[in-house]
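Task 17 of the worksheet. Students: predict the tertiary structure of the chain below and write it out as structure tokens. Keep your answer in the requested format; marks are given for formatting as well as content.
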Amino acid sequence: MMKDDTNKTSDITRESLYASTLGAILFLVLLGFLSFTGYKLNEIEGRIEDRLAYQPPVAIESEKSVGEPVFTTSHAHTIYVPVYSHIYANGGTPVLLETTLSIRNTDPEQDIVITSVNYYDTKGSMIEEYLDGNLVLGPLESSEVLVKKRDIRGGSGANFIVTWSSGEPVHLPIVQAAMVGGEGGMQISFLTNGQPLTLRIDPEKKN
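Model answer:
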């Protein structure tokens, strides 16, 4: 009787050992799979980030600009966009911000030509010209300009002046600036819209 009990105990011990070994193997396989999957996901995310990394706009002369004017004076427009390289918080402490200027052609059929994107500081002095030539935006195409967080030249009253044109009547483009930044646990993000500029007409000199 004792021998049978001993055999049963040995069988139970072996089964427990097999189960433990199998569980350990399955755990290691699962761990390896998760590690491999995590590596692949990180690799994919890295490639996505690389593809989405900021690329400055490249000015290209449109075919229309060769041999004939791209636009007439009546088709030229100017847009003022308020931006901030920093704002103040906590009683005057500056919070640095990164700015993305977005220029969007809203017309589904016609090109527009961005003729200049100029950046000005708080005192109204021009800091940088972001285009060297004309930038053609196709129907519904967009372009961006980036002002990095550590670029503090603009100040709290910085702005962009964007000029654009079209050889045909088009829907007005949308120009916006998105600011993001923050320190520690405080994060800030907000959006500003471009304001089309028109010449003020003196009624007394109208005629």
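Marker's comment: The CA atoms of residues 88 and 94 lie 5 Å apart. The longest strand covers residues 93-104.
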